Amino acid sequence: MITIALSKGRIFEETSPLLEAAGVVPTEKPESSRKLILQTNQAEVRLIIVRASDVPTYVQNGAADIGIAGRDVLLEHGGVGLYQPLDLNIARCKMMVAVREGFDYAACLQQGARLKVATKYVKIAREHFAAKGMHVDLIKLYGSMELAPLVGLADAIVDLVSTGGTLKANKLVAVEEIMPISSRLIVNQASFKLKRQLIQPIIDAFAQAIA
Ligand code: PRT
Ligand code: MG
Questions:
Q1: Is residue 133 scored above 90 in pLDDT?
Q2: CA distance 65 to 102
Q3: Same fold for the domain at 2-91+182-210 and the one at 93-180?
Q4: Contact 39, 48 (CB under 8 A)
Q5: DSSP conformational letter for 139
Q6: Average pLDDT over residues 97-113
Q7: Which one of 23, 45, 183, 203 is separated from 137 by 20 to 30 angstroms, measured CA to CA?
Q8: Rounded to whole angstroms, how far apart are CA atoms 156 and 154?
Q9: How far from each other are the two terminal CA atoms of the chain, in whole angstroms?
Q10: How remote is the CA of residue 75 from the centroid of ligand 1, in Å?
């Protein structure tokens, strides 16, 4: 038996065609089912539905053999003990620094001002600003980062941007790209050794499907 950990929403949607290419079709849709364990057309493959940021934890601990997680999630998690054989190039976006329209970010940088930065991605943000030699006070949030500069909680945010629609709707502008983000296949290292005959064909089918 192999267990694949996925999150609902964009990751599930963009992974479905890859699973199908590997011959794996869930018997129920996670969007309409409340079940957290989904059987598939293959008796030896099942899916578990977890929060996006929990996927590495399930795979690291062997509760799932395989998972799909964003580079953002993997960097924040640390990725220790995870084999990462494939960048699937799905759920693509960019990690960006954004500020309120009219806020002079460049001037702040020049003056060496100490910025308040709100983000869910504390580790990525800390490393980014440290590499630039900038002093920042990081404020950890769990969502709706876009609100923070509008109500004076922070000068800037670090968040994911795909269409840019959320920034625009909140009168924010991106001022810096930190890194491009896409989702990766992750595999538990022990599973990879012990269940290679089940796991390798899935990796190969995914690799072929994205090529
Ligand atoms: O939603 P939940 O709190 O359960 O967890 P999550 O937000 O981590 O999960 P989910 O399913 O929303 O995202 C899963 C993965 O998709 C992330 O880890 C990223 O790798 C990837 N991804 C790709 C994105 C986006 N694009 C994205 N646009 N994740 C989030 N967003 C959010 C962003 O945070 C911002 O609030 O969408 C908003 C901006 O979108 P635009 O299109 O308005 O720019
Ligand atoms: Mg989300």
A1: yes
A2: 48
A3: yes
A4: no
A5: E
A6: 95
A7: 183
A8: 6
A9: 27
A10: 15
Question: What residue's CA is closest to ligand 1, atom 5?
Answer: 52
What does the block give as tokens for 194? 């012990």
Q: What are the domain boundaries of the chain?
A: 2-91+182-210, 93-180
Contacts of 180 (CB under 8 A, 6+ apart): 92, 93, 94, 95
Kindly state the tokens that stand for 191.
């599973």
Among 8, 10, 87, 185, the mutation site with the greatest number of ligand 1 atoms within 8 A of its Cβ is 10
Q: Which residue has the tokens 């910025």?
A: 115
Kindly report, residue by residue over 171-211, the tens digit of the pLDDT: 999 999 999 999 999 999 999 999 999 999 999 999 999 99
CB 77 within 8 A of CB 53: yes
Q: Which CATH class is domain 2-91+182-210?
A: alpha beta
- Tell me the fold of 93-180: D-Maltodextrin-Binding Protein; domain 2 (3.40.190)
